[in-house]
Write a structure and sequence with these properties.
single chain, alpha+beta, Nucleotidyltransferase, domain 5, 2 domains, eight-stranded mixed beta sheet, four-stranded mixed beta sheet, 19 helices, about 40% helix, about 20% strand
């Protein structure tokens, strides 16, 4: 069963709250949100959304980062028009691990390479030959992902682009640099590179030396809330904004901002930040660098206010998005709501796959790749589109169950409720299945948790609001539209499915 509560995502009139622009870049689309915060109010509206379309050129998959920057400028112009030409601040967050290289003049050297490109194949084994995986984990606390920045840089060794580079900027830092002319490396995103020690919040020279990475490429570290400059006069002219407009570091890894945006009432919660990826875990005060954590593929990423995001990356709604793209390319464009309604009526756990399997990392032919994998205990895989969708959502719920249970076991954290934030909070079937699978209440929302976290960190730094993360989350709980799902059904079926996956 489920129920809605809260006054709605808008939270009412803006009143005396200050206007902040949140630039939130996701793997599928970018958006600029106008947030107003202060005086006990929190209001958020989308002012511009634009596609993020990777481009394959000469066999390499790139981000079209210039198109993304153009979308950012259009969004800032729209935000300014809504706010009367003045903004109290701008913050930028995006996906992790990818970067742009700058030459000595500050010019970009080629479009950044996409983390799903195949160039990192074999790089983990290459690094492990000089720095064993267990030692790398003790130094950085990062789960093994084949596209971590350290592997990308290892793959780029000896290339003309890296040889010419004088600066390396992670994607949100690159956008902030173009907006302000000032370079920095924001801490929460730096912690996803597998080059940073989460205990000290500084780069690990041991790892960098083993990987042959020049740490001098990284500009100084910034923490969420730190000043990152002001919009350049040329940017203000292009966007129609009246200056000065401060730019502040936020949790620039979008998951760090999304976790700030979790409307938890106390500390006994797990979160699942859903979108292209599902990032499921708990918030801690210190990293967990145990061998058991490494074996379970858990990561320690830094969060806002000295917190640690102890979580596991799961493929997420990427599986569904790729199925939809394949069907559309074949001339079978299905309406998602209708597919989800049919999937809800399909038998539970008829077929399922390991949503963490690297087999599903690359784009293309996703239904075809899911079908042979989704046959546990001899059951047939999904045949219709709706059955394939049910397989995907059952698989995600099962992966959420495993991640939440493992996070509790490995960290010792008590978990009484699971918060689902991000795009997946809209998916009622996924939220209901996650509650059933975890055997815990699920609170779904807000959908735009990353943008809200971005705005709230800016607002606190500007003095529009104050308090701890707990205070920020109380404001979210009062102002955002949330939906609660209670667990139901027979949990033994989920236990059986989990055992089947573990033994396969």
């Amino acid at each position: 069963m489920s129920g809605a509560y809260g006054p709605g995502a808008g939270g009412g009139a803006a009143g005396d709250a200050l206007p902040f622009a949140a630039v939130d870049l996701g793997a599928a689309s970018g958006r600029v949100m106008l947030g107003r915060a202060g005086g006990g109010e929190l209001h958020l509206e989308e002012v511009h959304r634009f596609p993020n379309r990777p481009v394959r050129l000469a066999g390499t998959l790139h981000w079209d980062v210039l198109a993304l920057y153009a979308g950012v400028l259009d969004g800032l112009r729209a935000a300014g028009q809504r706010a009367g030409g003045r903004l109290a601040g701008v913050g930028v967050d995006s996906w992790a691990v990818d970067y742009g290289l700058l030459d000595a003049s500050g010019a970009l050297i080629g479009n950044p390479v996409h983390y799903r490109d195949t160039r990192t194949e074999g790089m983990a084994a290459k690094l492990a030959a000089v720095l064993p995986a267990a030692e790398l984990y003790r130094a950085t606390g990062l789960q093994h992902l084949p596209f971590n920045t350290v592997y990308q840089l290892l793959a780029a060794r000896g290339t003309p682009a890296l040889a010419a580079a004088r600066r390396l900027l992670l994607i949100p830092d690159l956008v902030a640099y173009w907006l302000t002319g000032r370079a920095g490396t924001e801490l929460t995103n730096a912690s996803t590179t597998a080059l940073l020690d989460p205990r000290t919040g500084t780069f690990s020279r041991r790892v960098a030396e083993a990987a042959g990475v020049d740490l001098g490429l990284f500009p100084p570290l910034r923490r969420p809330g730190d000043p990152a400059g002001e919009l350049l006069p040329a940017v203000r002219e292009e966007t129609g904004l009246t200056g000065p407009v401060p730019v502040r570091a936020v949790g620039s890894h979008d998951t760090a901002s999304a976790v700030v945006g979790v409307p938890a009432r106390d500390a006994d919660f797990a979160y699942i930040a859903t979108g292209t990826w599902s990032l499921a875990g708990v918030e801690l005060d210190a990293p967990v660098l145990t061998e058991a954590g490494r074996a379970a593929n858990f990561t320690n990423e830094l969060g806002v206010d000295g917190t640690v995001r102890y979580l596991r990356n799961i493929m997420g709604l990427w599986l569904l998005q790729e199925c939809q793209r394949t069907w559309a390319a074949e001339g079978r464009a299905y309406e998602l709501d209708a597919l989800l309604a049919e999937a809800a009526a399909a038998p539970r756990l008829r077929s399922y796959v390991d949503a963490g399997d690297p087999e599903f990392l690359a784009p293309g032919r996703m239904p075809e790749r899911i079908a042979p994998a989704g046959r546990p205990a001899g059951r047939p895989a999904g045949r219709t589109a709706a059955e394939t969708v049910r397989c995907v959502l059952d698989s995600l719920a099962l992966a959420h169950r495993r991640a939440v249970a493992d996070a509790r076991r490995l960290s010792g954290r008590t978990v009484r409720v699971v918060h689902v934030v991000g795009g997946g909070a809209r998916n009622e079937l996924l939220c209901r299945l996650t509650a059933d699978a975890c055997g815990l209440p699920v609170v779904a929302g807000p959908v735009e948790a990353a943008a809200l976290g971005n705005v709230l960190v800016q607002a606190r730094a500007a003095g529009a609001i104050d308090g701890t993360l707990s205070d920020i989350r109380s404001l979210l709980h009062r102002t955002q539209s949330l939906r609660e799902y209670e667990p139901g059904g027979d949990e033994s079926a989920w236990e059986e499915a989990e055992c089947a996956l573990r033994s396969s």
